[in-house]
Amino acid sequence: MKVVLAYSGGLDTSVCIPWLQEHYGAEVITLTLELGQEEVDLKAIEKKAKKLGALKTFSLDVREEFVREYVFPSIKANGLYEGKYPLSTALTRPLIAKWLVTIAEQEEAKAVAHGATGKGNDQVRFETTIRALNPELKILAPVREWSLTREEEIRYAEERGIDIPVTAKHPYSYDANIWGKSAEGGNLEHPMCEPTEGRWGWTIAHEKAPDRAEYVELEFEEGVPVKLNGERYAPVELIHELNEIGAKHGVGRVDMMEDRLVGIKSRETYECPGATILLTAHKDLESMVLTREQLFFKELVDRKWAQMVYFGQWYEPLMQDLNAFINNSQHFVSGKVRVKLYKGQATVVGRESPYSLYDLALATYDSKDRFEHEAAEGFIKIWGLPQEIVGKRNRKFEK
Fold it and tell me: Considering 14, 63, 93, 150, which one is annotated as catalytic?
C-alpha cells in the first residue's frame, strides 16, 4: 500500500517512516513543504527520508501560496485565537493537507499519514481537510495509534539510528513557518516556569533589545500589506523583513494558557514578530476607515474566524460566509500606519487614509470646531429616554 506522509524531518514524522513500513508494509512517499521555516534544507530532508526507506520524496516551495491564500486572509480577519495567538501553525495545516491529497491522487496512493498526536489540534486540522477534499483516502496517524510518549519516541529513534532534532535532555518540540514559531514540551509544561532564553529562537530578550526605538511605516491596499517604509515588497519578502526588524526589538513573544480543541488547557509559547506588527497595524487602520457598527460586528466575526481556523474548519461553509463579509469590509482599508518598535512592544503612533472617517473639524476643540454643540442636548434626551422612564417607574414603586 502506498502512503503519502506529511514529513518535516522532525521527531514525530521521522519515526513514522519505519513504523508505517513495519506495521503496514507501506511504501512511504514523503511530502515536505517550504513554508518559511528556519534555514530549511529541502534536499537534506529528502535525503534523510530516503535513508529511512522512503520510496519517493516530494518537496515544494509553497511560501507564496501560503502568504497569499492563508496569511493575507488572516490579516484581513485580524486573526488571533483567544486574543493572543496569530494562528501561525494552524494556518499551515489546511495547506499541507491539501497538498497531501494532491500528491496522493497523483501517485495513486490509497492512504495519507501525519505525525500528530492524539491530544493535539493538528490531527483535527489535517483530517477534517483531507476528508473534505477526498473522503476516500485512508488516514493513518502513527504517533496517535502507537500511543508513545515523547521519551519512548526518542528511544525508538535512537535504537534505529534515526537522526532527530530533540533528545531527552532537550525535549522541546518546535514548529516554524514565515508567520511564526511555536514551542512546547519540557519545562514549558509547568505554567509557573519562565521560558529560558534558549527556548526563544527568533526574538531578542526585551531587556537586551536596543535602547532606541525604531519606526516602520506600513501601507495597506484593501486590507493587504504592500509596502514597507515606502518600498513595495513581494508578499513573502515583506513578512520576512518585518520578522527580522521585529525580532531584534523583542517584538512578538507570546506565552499563554491556550484552550485546545480536544478540551484540555495547554501552555504554549510563540514568536511572531512580523505577524504582531502587521496585525497591530491593520486593526488600527480599520478603526479609522470602518464605521462604529462595522467595527463592533467585525470583532465578533474575526473572533469566530480565528476559532474556526484553530479548530480545523477551513472548508466549513460558514468560513466562506465569514470571508465574504470580511473581504467586503476591506474595500476602504487602504492607507499608511506608522508603528513604533521598542523593548518588545509594537505601538501604532500614526495613521492616514484617503478613506478616513476622521474629520478634524468635528473632532477638534479649537476655533476651527464646527460640531453642532447645541444639538447635543436633544440627542442626550432622546438617547436617555428609556433610562428616564425606568427611573420614574422605580422611584414610584420604591415609595
Answer: 93
Q: Which residues contact 234 (CB under 8 A, 6 or more apart)?
A: 64
Domains and CATH numbers, the chain: 2-168 (3.40.50.620), 176-352 (3.90.1260.10), 360-398 (1.20.5)
pLDDT by residue (tens digit) across 325-354? 999 999 999 999 999 999 999 999 999 999
Interatomic CA distance for residues 78 and 72, integer angstroms? 10
| Residue 12 annotated as catalytic | yes
pTM over 0.70, yes/no: yes
User: Mean pLDDT throughout 1-24?
Assistant: 90
Task: State the catalytic residue, choosing from 12, 175, 284, 302.
Answer: 12
Q: By CB neighbour count within 10 A (0-12 exposed, 13-18 middle, 19+ buried), where does 58 fall?
A: buried
Judge whether 122 counts as a catalytic residue. yes
